[in-house]
Design brief:
CATH topology of the largest domain: Jelly Rolls
Radius of gyration: 23 Å
Number of domains: 3
Cofactor: Cu(2+)
CATH architecture of the largest domain: Sandwich
CATH class of the largest domain: Mainly Beta
Largest sheet: 6 strands, mixed
Distance between the termini: 45 Å
Main location: endoplasmic reticulum
GO molecular function: copper ion binding; dopamine beta-monooxygenase activity
Order of helices and strands: EEEEEEEEEEEEEEEEEEEEEHEEEEEEE
Strand content: 35-45%
Protein name: MOXD1 protein
InterPro entries: Cu2_ascorb_mOase-like_C (IPR014784), Cu2_ascorb_mOase_N (IPR000323), Cu2_ascorb_mOase_N_sf (IPR036939), Cu2_monoox_C (IPR024548), DBH-like (IPR000945), DOH_DOMON (IPR045266), DOMON_domain (IPR005018), PHM/PNGase_F_dom_sf (IPR008977)
Length: 369
């Protein structure tokens, strides 16, 4: 049945019943209910379902509902963030596909709020082109809230194996000079995300002279409780195939640059910042190398704790197109790729605007982004 709660959390039966039971089954261990509902019911007691993150709240009692109404669920409850209209894409991959892991080795995580740790790796697949078809996070058990995001950068191919011997804190005055050669992001993962499967006609190219040989893995550790003595071995698994796909994948980064000039005042229920990828920028980036433009097939929207909503706007010939991607219910702990229903062409001379909405009502100091 269709129920809703008021501001006092009292459960009330909705006079407009918008949930329809499709089927139900029960065995000795499970009760399964399948139901459907219109995305927009025009009922003020219902929440419209969009492509934004949906927080699904569940609760149950071991006894069926009696005449007096629902039994209180006690501790049998929980919540899960999902993107109901943009589920994770699972491609049936051969279990025999080769893979390699890029993982940190016993990294001592400092007892401070935020740490960026960088480690250089050498891609083991060389001399022949292959395509990476899937990337999976390998998060050390118990560290699911510690590892906030992982970036993989392509570095200069002129380095030697001595750069592989040690990791170091990123963006640090004493970090190795070799880290400065790593500028191009080739993959990104963020907290709450599952593995990323490339579409069947696309892969991340490895193995040729133009492909990454040395890569830098940057892991952002989030340790707000200043826990001491943490040792981490997280990283990424790259699954690849010799059966080549039609197109090579890349990453375009757009948004707000991390800068002391970007700050958010405290006590703000709503504060909007914009990052502009200008037409001059895209003209220079794509004009000579990709005059026919690039095809966007997935978007990862990324923000931190103050983030409440993100919108990726796209302009062509000065006219705004349909939003490239958006999440009006952003969840810091659920940062998952959104696969576009249709690939979007971005041409030289287009504009991209990343609109970030923040809330700092619970903060008394400036937020430096």
């Amino acid at each position: 049945q269709d129920y809703f709660t008021d501001e006092n959390r009292v459960l009330k039966k909705d006079p407009q019943q918008d949930y329809h039971l499709e089927y139900a089954m029960e065995n000795s261990t499970h009760t399964i209910l399948a139901f459907s509902r219109e995305l927009h019911t025009c009922d003020t007691n219902d929440k419209s379902i969009t492509e934004s993150t949906v927080r699904v709240i569940w609760a149950y009692h071991h006894k069926d509902m009696g005449e007096a109404g629902q039994n209180y669920h006690g501790s049998n409850r929980g919540t899960k963030s999902l993107r109901l209209l943009n589920p994770e894409r699972e491609e049936v991959l051969s279990a025999s596909l080769p893979f390699f892991d890029l993982t940190n080795k016993d990294v001592p995580v400092p007892d401070k709020d935020t740490t960026y740790w960088c480690q250089m790796f050498k891609i083991p697949v060389q001399h022949e082109k292959h395509h990476v078809t899937k990337v999976e996070p390998l998060i050390q058990k118990g560290h699911e809230n510690l590892v906030h995001h992982i970036l993989l950068y392509q570095c200069s191919s002129n380095l030697n194996d001595s750069v592989l011997d040690y990791g170091h804190e990123c963006y640090h005055p004493n970090m190795p000079d070799s880290f400065l050669t790593c500028e191009t992001v080739i993959f990104a993962w963020a907290i709450g995300g599952e593995g990323f499967t490339y579409p069947p006609h696309v892969g991340l190219s490895i193995g040729t002279a133009a492909d990454p040989l040395f890569v830098l893995m940057e892991v952002h550790y989030d340790n707000p409780s200043y826990t001491e003595g943490l040792i981490d071995n997280s990283g990424l698994r790259l699954i690849y195939t010799p059966v080549l796909r039609k197109y090579d994948a890349g990453v375009i980064e757009a948004g707000l640059w991390v800068s002391l000039f970007h700050n958010i005042p405290p006590g703000m229920p709503e504060f909007v910042s914009e990052g502009h990828c200008t037409l001059e920028c895209l003209e220079e980036a794509l004009g000579a190398e990709r005059p026919a433009g690039i095809q966007v097939f997935a978007v990862l929207l990324h923000a931190h704790l103050a983030g409440r909503a993100i919108r990726m706007r796209h302009f062509h010939n000065g006219e705004e197109q349909k939003l490239l991607a958006y999440d009006d219910e952003f969840d810091f702990n659920f940062q998952e790729f959104q696969y576009l229903k249709e690939e979007r062409t971005i041409l030289p001379g287009d504009n991209l605007i990343t609109e970030c909405h923040y809330s700092t009502v619970d903060r008394i100091r400036m937020t430096w982004v």
